[in-house]
Amino acid sequence: MSLKHSFIKPKAILTALLVTSVYTNLAGCSATITPEINELVFIKAQEDINLETLNRRKWDNPIVADFDQDGHTDLLLLDHGRLMKMYWNNGQGKFLKPITIRGGDLHGVAVGDINQDGKLNIVVSQGGGAGTNLRKPEFYQIEKNRKISKLADLDKNFVAGRGRGAKLVDADKDGDLDLILPGAMSSKDKQSQIFVYENNGKGHYTLHSRLPTIRGEAQRLKITDFNNDGIFDLIFYGTSQPIKLYQGDGNLGYKNVTEQVLAGNQITHVLGIAEIDFDNDGDFDLFLNRSGEIDKQYLHYDAEEKNLAVAVRNSKKIDIKQIQAGDILKITNFQKVLKKRVYLGKTKTLLDLSKNDWHAGVDLSINHHDANGFPDHSDLEKDSIHIGYLGDGNWRLAALTQFLGTMTLVDVIINQIENKPIDQHSGILLENIQGKLLDISASSQLDQLINTTGTAVADYNNDGFNDLFVVKHGTLANPVKQALLINNGRGQFNLVTHHQIESAGMGTFGMGADALDYNQDGLVDLIYTNERGLWHLYKNSKSIKQKNNFIKFKVSNSPTGKATALGAIVTLYLDNGITQTQRVGYGAAPYSQSFNDTVHFGIGKQAQFVKMEVKWTNGESVVLNSISDNNNSVSMLTN
């Protein structure tokens, strides 16, 4: 079922659709897995989008927004150190062939209308060459005819640095979008690299302040409002550093309130944070993805599948002295930052990889004739991989690299090996209770999620309660079945076992995800990615057994036009007493920020619309007390 849209532009504040979706009502299910839950199935949608099939490094989540403002959600996808591509939605449930905006060492991306001219902008945080080439952010403007142009005059007031993230936020409640740029520490600038820039209302920025220094790789940033005062707060997180919570004062100032809000609970190894009002009480709770990360050495051998995952970085060595592989050693998805130097045999013959895409994963089949012997230990080259054939089907592999090198050896037997796993960390659900965040992971059953990296929150079965799609870190040695958890409406999440969302390749590990209804059939779909892997688009399929309804609101600028929709709060009131709340934009990306201006509410089978309210970031609000009964019609609210 497709939906016909006829958007009326003049004076448009928001549009609303009430339609019928197809899915089982799970609001009354028990904490155990039920057959109804397992009817929730997703289909890989490769026919709907022309995604690349080469494994590549990634930086962050997909970027979801209606960039050309035609009523259909588009995608901006970025491969780390390579290309940033736009996928236009053709309005018929498919994406056009992507166009490349630019290449290079690009990091966090934020989307919003920075000068309130009705056109969306893209802010791109650039890497700084490990401190050797400090750079400023770039700005782009997207016309409604899909023309994309660089705005060259906006970077003069910015401090050059090692960019990591980009977040647009109305930090002073005046309606325009200020900008926070977290960066990595630089030897050329010893001050903090967490920059807060103020928007003058016309899309020009001046440096307001620098937030306290963030050590390690804890520049990941979640924008939320944990004390529910209408002023945005900040949470910095990442790796082994404890998360830090900063309360906004409404004037671009921030105070560290970590101790008070978390009641002394130190939470580390957080890789993603998602807002979810899981209990429909009107405030935003938080789900935290947590995982160990590949630090110096990583080995995982799956004896049943006979696959060995290898990763090494920070000039630490891995030496596997007995690998049974026969006459040919097979390696899949070998990736290494910068030069892929592989030496074969005792003579250290350099394997010619010049014809391969240097940025993509490489599959190797090494014949024993080309790799006889192994060099002396003292002859190993730095920042390289050494492979040698020892005879009788046995091989040896040693790796010593500064930047992360990863690979998976396929169909090998290793009799004696000590796995070197990443640390294990469980997911955390923090319930917001009057501005304090209480850990309820055990009672919600979300502590069962071990080592996850990203989340997409949505009501995937349209029953009126937001669910979780969670990306797992994985072992690199096996395909990974991702996690889909349905909110049962009583404070627990139940695992779906037959959803069919899987990362089929090896040598990859988890990253991020986002939710969208790209084909506008009323069922929320998914796009996610794996680091050193692929982008994956999955279509939410339909069950014919029961039907759940949904309502969608497309939010525009405030009535006066002074505030954009980004960050606005939409509250839906139903006749069954349930109230649902969502924030426009702001997915769970650590470094980037989407801007999906359409909010989707599942309402179950029988619930009826009572009213809805939109509150913009500058305090303006609108209440809608009626909605059209025409399932495919558009109701327009004007001043």
Automatic annotation (TrEMBL):
Alphabetical list of InterPro entries matching this protein: Crtac1, FG-GAP, Integrin_alpha_N, UnbV_ASPIC
Residue stretches making up the ASPIC/UnbV domain: 565-630
Family annotation (SUPFAM superfamilies): Integrin alpha N-terminal domain
Pfam families: FG-GAP_3, UnbV_ASPIC
Keywords assigned: Signal
Residues of the signal peptide: 1-27
Gene3D superfamilies: Integrin alpha, N-terminal
Entries under PANTHER family matching the protein: CARTILAGE ACIDIC PROTEIN 1
Name of the protein in question: ASPIC/UnbV domain-containing protein
Species whose genome carries this gene: Catenovulum maritimum
